[in-house]
Amino acid sequence: MNDAPLTAALSRRQFLVGGGALIVSFSLMAPSLRAQENNRNAAAAPAKRPLPGSLKDEPMLDAWIRIDSAGNITVFTGKAELGQGIKTALIQIAAEELSVDISRIALITADTQLTPNEGYTAGSHSMQDSGTAIKHAAAQVGEILAGLAAQRFGVAADGLTMQNGAVCAADGRCAGYGELVGDEQLHVRARETSTLKDPRSYVTVGKSVPRVDIPRKVTGGASYVQDLRLPGMVHARVLRPPSPGARLVALDTATANQLPGVIKIIRDGNFVAVVAAREFQAVTAMRALARTASWQERPTLPAQDDIYALILRSPAQDTAILDVHNPAPAAVRTLEATYRRPYQMHGSIGPACAVALYKDEGLTVWTHTQGVYPLRKAIAEMLRMPAEQVRCIHMEGAGCYGHNAADDAGGDAALIARALPDRPVRVQWMREDEHLWEPYGPAMVSKVAASLDSDGLISDWQYHVWSNTHSMRPGPAGNLLAAQQLATPFAPAPPMPIPQPEGGGDRNAIPLYKFRNARVVHHFVPGMPLRVSALRALGAYMNIFSIECFIDELARAAGSDAVDFRLRHMDDARARDVMRAAAERFVWSAWQAQKGRGRGFAFARYKNLGAYAAVACEVEVEHESGRVRVVRAAAAVDSGQAVNPDGIRNQIEGGIVQSLSWSLYESVTFDATRITSRDWAHYPILRFSAVPERIEVHVIDRPGQPFLGTGEAAHGPTAGALANAIADATGVRMRELPFTAKRVKAAIGV
User: Fold this and answer.
1) Which of 25, 290, 640, 703 is the most exposed place for a label (fewest CB within 10 A)?
2) DSSP tally for the chain: helices H, then strands E
3) For 400-431, b where at least 16 C-beta lie within 10 A, e where not — what string?
4) What are phi and psi of 163, to 5 degrees?
5) pLDDT tens, residue by residue, 481-491
6) Distance CA 520, CA 547 (A)
7) Spatial contact of 687 and 588, defined as CB atoms under 8 Å apart
8) In whole angstroms, what is the distance from residue 484 CA to residue 52 CA?
9) Mean pLDDT, to the nearest integer, of 417-438?
10) How far is CA 747 from CA 311, 667, 731, in A?
11) Across all residues in the chain, what is the average pLDDT?
12) CB 511, CB 607: distance < 8 Å
């Protein structure tokens, strides 16, 4: 019998309590006496704290970190790399607590056969959940290693040092990590608290380490699932309906079947796919099928000009998420405004893709989903297979932020692969498929009214927001597009709001500012005409845009500087630091008014529990054309402990650019029957020529503080700062997104 796991566990306990007698005495105690003792201890002890981060859901240390006999260290995370640099940051965290160089760490991400189930990679939670879990797991593994080395050397553990993958005594004796744990897994339950490194001694954390995922991406390597090529792989294309309400009434497959390379045509209800030996052969055959397909279409979409009125008059579930009443001075002025956001799409540069292999009654899917475990559940339900027979392996996708078409492509590939056993099947969506069928970010409406008192302070705040759900992600099979189109279809799950404190349509609807009186109501609209789900930042983008625009209007009405006005209503010290830092980087106080140019400022703490971010920007507005050019932007962010400052800057810069694209250009268009924004010509996005000349990001590091997450912190503040800058440049307030040249020109009356 190999008793290494028992030895490791006992050594762990001995290291903690300073000896083995206490453990032995309890192990020999009669069961009844032991139960009585445990009851007395439980009654006397304070309630246990939850385990840190995702350890609360997967508490075994070897689920996160494993060390083999050769000393190779493997770290596991259920989160996915989506371009946010999470691989690099998690490696840094583990390397720091284990006192090794980052080159010693191998990281495995999001694989239902290998990694913990951490749900979705969403909501800026990767560092909060997985980063925290890995940090504590690594620290506790380090303590186990020290305890084992102390036992081997016969010395006190506190006299040992960890360096370069070994534990060393003061006399020079060293034992490698692999020697200490052998090939046995560290199958030990995590504790609620860990002895973490002092941030002042950090070697790796807090440094701008080059990202590990970049080299292959810039040298033409196989980085994305779109690049995956497996032996014997075949290619598939799916024939999509032309509109949301279309039904396939006839299909002639004879011509397509005769085309070169065609292997199989699959039809199940409205789901039609063709498989061919080569990719372009599949495209050619799909187009041939499209020419012979007869669809029955019906007008299911509302008039685009009526969409906001439709949202406001639709049945809604109304919830007051904030209601504060206090005596206040009499109001001297009251302002009101309404803000609108259209449907917007992810518009991923690389259309969705997946590869699937059905073999020996098991299915493997390589996918750029943001949730491998929920996708596995959905695919298993759709195919009526046990979930244990489905494996989902995450690979990066060329564009992913929110619930785009990645899961749908995985569902397509799974269906097709089951019909073609033993052959890897690659499914690539076409550009028009992505634009017409991906789940969109919902259209939204907000209404706000506020009063100023004689001191120029906000005495009353009333905010209402109307929105559909912001998550129809898989988990249920009916949330997969393919499952909805089968002859025996799966119905989508009922739309549900995401509860506070994170929220969905009401995310960030509660201002962080302090008002004497405030009421915030979320009007959740279950029924909407277009397919919607999670788009980056969810409702926070719209709510922060609305709040920060209106705060700016109130500041102007009060005759106050925009930054000073915000500071007067803010008592969170970290928020104040971020606002001041952004203003200083922008050199806000030295602004000189220029014709056609304006400046804007905005702030938010993402979800009121994540990263703090403030953005200031300068714009130039061409009055003749209405074109808005963002000249420069300055931002400050507080994400707690900064693991990789350059990675944080990347995220804020990327968020600013994406938000500018949403806010200046992007809007889904449709007629009564079809989506009409089917390509880049009809759904324009920000081009390189429109990127600001300079974006400066200041990172406020908080060593030793919890990770707050960064990925979605900049989107709302950027939209608010942009709108405020346009108002400053033109004297006209824009309240409907996006601020297209046509819309700006009409507003300023040129």
Assistant:
1) 25
2) 20, 24
3) bbbbbbbbbbbbbbbbbbbebeebbbbbbbbe
4) -155, 130
5) 999 999 999 99
6) 11
7) no
8) 39
9) 97
10) 24, 18, 10
11) 92
12) no
CB 70 within 8 A of CB 178: yes
Q: Are 79 and 121 in contact (CB under 8 A)?
A: yes
528: left (phi over 0), alpha (psi -120 to 50) or beta: beta
Task: Identify the CA nearest to 341 among candidates 595, 719, 745, 733.
Answer: 719
What average pLDDT does this structure show over 388-392? 98
Residues 6+ apart with CB under 8 A from 374: 119, 120, 473, 474, 475
pLDDT at residue 47, as a whole number: 61
User: Please, what is the Cα angle at 194 between 193 and 199, to 5 degrees?
Assistant: 125
What's the confidence (pLDDT) of residue 183? 63
| 3-state DSSP helix/strand/coil % of the chain, to nearest 5 | 35, 20, 45
Average pLDDT over residues 724-742: 97
- The DSSP secondary-structure symbol of 712 reads T
Q: How far apart are CA 393 and CA 453, in angstroms?
A: 58
Under DSSP, is residue 205 helix (H, G, I), strand (E, B) or coil?
coil
- Determine contact, residues 402/84, Cβ cutoff 8 Å: no
pLDDT at res. 33: 36
- The CA distance from 362 to 359, in Å, is 5
**46 falls in which pLDDT band (50, 70, 90)?**
low
Beta-strand ranges (E) seen in 193-348 are 234-239, 247-250, 262-268, 271-276, 294-296, 317-324, 333-341
> Which runs of E-coded beta strand occur in 309-424?
317-324, 333-341, 353-359, 362-367, 390-394
Is the predicted pLDDT of residue 743 greater than 50, yes or no? yes
Computed from CA positions of residues 593, 596, 597, 598, in that sequence, does the dihedral angle turn out positive or negative? positive
Domains of the chain in sequence order: 4-214 (3.30.365.10), 225-297+346-437 (3.30.365.10), 444-470+505-748 (3.30.365.10)
- Count Cα neighbours of 113 within 13 Å in the Cβ-side half-sphere: 11
CA dist 728 and 722 (Å) reads: 10
Residues with Cβ within 8 Å of residue 249, at least 6 apart in sequence:
294, 295, 296
Whether the pLDDT of residue 97 is over 80: the answer is: yes
Q: Residue 722: pLDDT band by 50, 70, 90 thresholds?
A: very high
Give me Rg for the CA atoms of the chain: 28
What's the confidence (pLDDT) of residue 5?
32
pLDDT at 627 over 60: yes
Per DSSP (E only), the strands in 567-693 are 597-605, 612-621, 628-638
What type of residue is 360?
Answer: D
Interval 405-418 mean pLDDT:
98
**In the 8-state DSSP scheme, what is residue 46?**
P
Strands 444-452 and 362-367: unpaired
| Pairing relationship of beta strands 694-699 and 628-638 according to DSSP bridges | parallel
Place of tokens 């302070």: 457
First-to-last C-alpha distance (Å) of the chain: 86
Phi then psi for 742, rounded to 5 degrees? -65, -45
Instruction: Decide: helix, strand or coil at residue 224.
Output: strand
Of the candidates 197, 6, 205, the one whose C-alpha atom is nearest the C-alpha of residue 644 is 205
**pLDDT band of 203, cuts 50, 70, 90:** very high
Separation of alpha carbons 163 and 142, rounded Å:
11
State the sign of the Cα–Cα–Cα–Cα dihedral 392, 397, 401, 406. Answer: negative
* Residue in the structure block whose two tokens are 């098991």: 362
Given this model, what pLDDT does residue 463 score? 98
C-beta separation of 204 from 102 below 8 A: yes
- In DSSP terms, 612 is beta-bridged to 605, 638
For residue range 553-597, what is the model confidence (pLDDT) as tens digits? 999 999 999 999 999 999 999 999 999 999 999 999 999 999 999
Query: What mean pLDDT comes out for the span 254-273?
Result: 97
Output phi, psi for 636, to 5 deg. -130, 145
Which H or E element spans position 457?
A: none
